[in-house]
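4.2 Preliminary Data

To establish feasibility before requesting continued support, the project team ran the inverse folding procedure on a target of 414 residues. The structure was first converted into the token representation described in Section 3, and no sequence information of any kind was made available to the design step. The complete token record follows.
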């Protein structure tokens, strides 16, 4: 049987066909996930991932911060606690009175610092377990009631906490409170090789230098750009991720827009978080949609959207571990995404149905999958449109064991 231009044609099938197709099935099943991206840039399924919920880790649904300690354990800021995951088991580390633990950082000595609401301290390792120790006495008296600790970053031998009252700088065992240029705003922290930066909506971009905030980009030059993240993929090259206007390059004291295949998303939907992945890919969170991965040339390299399996597209934070896996904090759980985005998966959420898949074949630049309940063709996603998905070929209503492309079409056998 042959499929050509949507029509079924009967053709003779020899024993050689069965043998060739069997060998082809083995080869395709081994090479499919590694090679199909080269054949069509947008034939990218969802990445391999694990999803953890409160049933797994025993805390509140929401987590707001994520870091990895020196021994490889993943730590997550949760409600009145820090969650620890060693790759198999979850442990809840109480942080009394913290309420929301949004700030986690690890310094050069491996000490884990924790910030909550009017709560500041560190995790000490005692008898093989973490215990929270309050260090509130380290803070200047005037800022001990700092309100929320929103986030924390580490740069060289310094740790910075963004709080309601001030930017707190921890250095050499002492804390300095650096006043904000304007109070009552949500000041975000960004760390790059060149230093630590901070920005709030409608304000200039500042760089922290010698316990002061120095203006790096003035308000007029920013032209109402609300910065969500700063990347420095190469020394001296800074990329500014805006909340709703895409990417910009900051070079030689000027800002220029960077065109990407993802601009239809980046220009319209809220983008709050970004992370540099291995191979200098950028993972960007599209609020209430999913995660988009692009390279430095702006080319889409992967997507993980709600329609193709993203468990929860409401994002609170993300970070990578030393193996390159991406950890995502959401409103309902924690997602671990495998490091290699070249390997992706298609399943029933991608339109493949639920019957066993038995062969894969490419014909005229389109990818086809034979299954027990018919033949499916992959429709590649268009930039700014939707994720790639499979559509069933209506002309084929039979179970397919093997498929082989030839000049007349696709030969199939049930």
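Position-by-position output of the design step:
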């Amino acid at each position: 049987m042959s499929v050509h231009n949507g029509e079924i044609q009967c053709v003779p099938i020899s024993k050689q066909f069965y043998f060739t197709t069997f060998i082809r099935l083995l080869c395709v099943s081994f090479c499919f996930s590694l090679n199909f991206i080269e054949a069509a840039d947008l034939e990218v399924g969802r990445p391999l991932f694990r999803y953890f919920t409160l049933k797994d880790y025993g805390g509140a649904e929401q987590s707001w911060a994520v870091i990895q300690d020196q021994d490889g354990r993943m730590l997550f800021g949760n409600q009145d606690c820090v969650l620890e995951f060693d790759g198999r088991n979850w442990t809840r580390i109480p942080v009394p009175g913290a309420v929301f633990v949004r700030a986690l950082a690890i310094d050069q000595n491996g000490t884990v610092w924790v910030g909550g609401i009017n709560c500041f301290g560190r995790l000490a390792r005692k008898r093989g377990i973490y215990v929270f120790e309050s260090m509130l006495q380290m803070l200047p008296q005037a800022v001990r009631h700092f309100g929320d600790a929103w986030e924390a970053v580490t740069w060289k031998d310094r740790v910075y906490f963004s709080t309601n009252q001030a930017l707190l700088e921890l250095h050499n065992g002492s804390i300095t409170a650096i006043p904000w240029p304007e109070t009552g705003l949500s000041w975000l922290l960004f760390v790059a090789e060149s230093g630590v930066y901070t920005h709030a909506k409608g304000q200039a971009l500042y760089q922290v230098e010698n316990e002061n905030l120095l203006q790096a980009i003035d308000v007029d030059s920013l032209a109402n750009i609300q910065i969500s993240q700063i990347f420095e993929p190469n020394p001296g090259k800074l990329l500014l991720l805006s909340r709703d206007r895409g990417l910009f390059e900051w070079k030689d004291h000027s800002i220029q827009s960077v065109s990407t295949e993802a601009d239809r998303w980046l220009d319209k939907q809220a983008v709050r978080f970004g992370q540099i992945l291995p191979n200098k890919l950028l993972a960007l969170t599209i609020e209430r949609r999913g995660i988009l991965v692009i390279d430095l040339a702006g080319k889409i390299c992967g997507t993980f959207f709600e329609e193709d399996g993203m468990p929860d597209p409401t994002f609170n934070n993300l970070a990578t571990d030393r193996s390159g896996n991406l950890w995502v904090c959401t409103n309902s759980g924690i997602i671990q995404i495998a490091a290699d985005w070249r390997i992706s998966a298609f399943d029933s959420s991608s339109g493949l149905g639920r019957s066993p898949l038995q062969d894969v074949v490419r014909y005229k630049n389109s990818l086809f999958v034979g299954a027990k309940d018919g033949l499916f063709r992959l429709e590649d996603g268009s930039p700014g449109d939707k994720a790639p998905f499979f559509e069933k070929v209506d002309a084929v209503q039979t179970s397919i064991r093997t498929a082989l492309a030839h000049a007349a079409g696709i030969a199939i056998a049930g």
